[in-house]
């Protein structure tokens, strides 16, 4: 079977698997990768960019290399190739679990139980929940849904369309390494530099596609594009900026502002300053927008692979 159909059928099956099953509670491949990366870090860690770059190369390169070997071993079998693509897609995307966690926090906030919402927030993002009131938690959830739509779904599909199973696995490996060591703490400021920069590069196309589709799928396309153009570059992350700005404009809300991470307080620019403050009901709206963006991204990526194949045969 042609590679374009393998990706289309396999990725569709993987997305449906995520929709129906979500992430496994035990034995998740990404968690296994995280444990392996942690073991490598314990051996290699030095307060030096070079050692951090080696850590990134070993972990991300190893994951992509193993995925390439697996894809090569089944390439003669149509069924096995589709099954491997489906399994890899299901393993690396996390749209359903993202939506479940966001809705659980939204439900707690709607019931007035801020403490339960604070307890659940670390399952979704790294904010300090004790520093947030109900409105701050709702804003954090919407921002996390926006950013993770790109990181947990769209970016993986983009690289799957480009490089098949190795692209899917490699992207998620890079994204996971960034979450583990890519932050600017004392321990990782230098050691995590390579992982953070590689994640910026790998996430660039998926973030722009996510922002574009959020504008197309939202209720205010012009507002989304206006916020993206005006505010994205003010965000400290080159990839989260376009995504969060576009979501803010699509939903008609303000995102950004003061937040706390691991004892650090950051004062980020406001995105879509003309919008209103985030309300609890906006969490559900953000989850629905995220799901529409995810399936549109699959359609774009599958169509892109098909068009590339036809162009190569012409």
Short synopsis of the structure:
The chain is mainly α.
Rg on CA atoms, Å = 19 Å
Distance between the termini: 19 Å
Query: For the residues shown, what is the average pLDDT?
Result: 94
Number of helices: 11
Helix content: over 70%
Strand order of the largest sheet: 1-2
Describe, in plain words, how this protein is organized in 3D:
There is one protein chain. With 314 residues, the protein is mostly helical. It contains eleven helices and two strands, in the order H-H-H-H-H-H-H-H-H-H-E-E-H. The chain has helices spanning 3-21, 29-44, 49-74, 78-92, 95-110, 114-120, 134-181, 193-217, 221-231, 240-251, 281-313; strands at residues 255-261, 264-271. It has a two-stranded antiparallel ribbon with strand order 1-2. Strand 1 (255-261) and strand 2 (264-271) form a beta hairpin. The relative contact order is 0.14.
What is the topological layout?
Layout: H1 3-21, H2 29-44, H3 49-74, H4 78-92, H5 95-110, H6 114-120, H7 134-181, H8 193-217, H9 221-231, H10 240-251, E1 255-261, E2 264-271, H11 281-313
Antiparallel strand pairs: 1-2
Notable features of this structure?
mainly alpha; two-stranded antiparallel ribbon
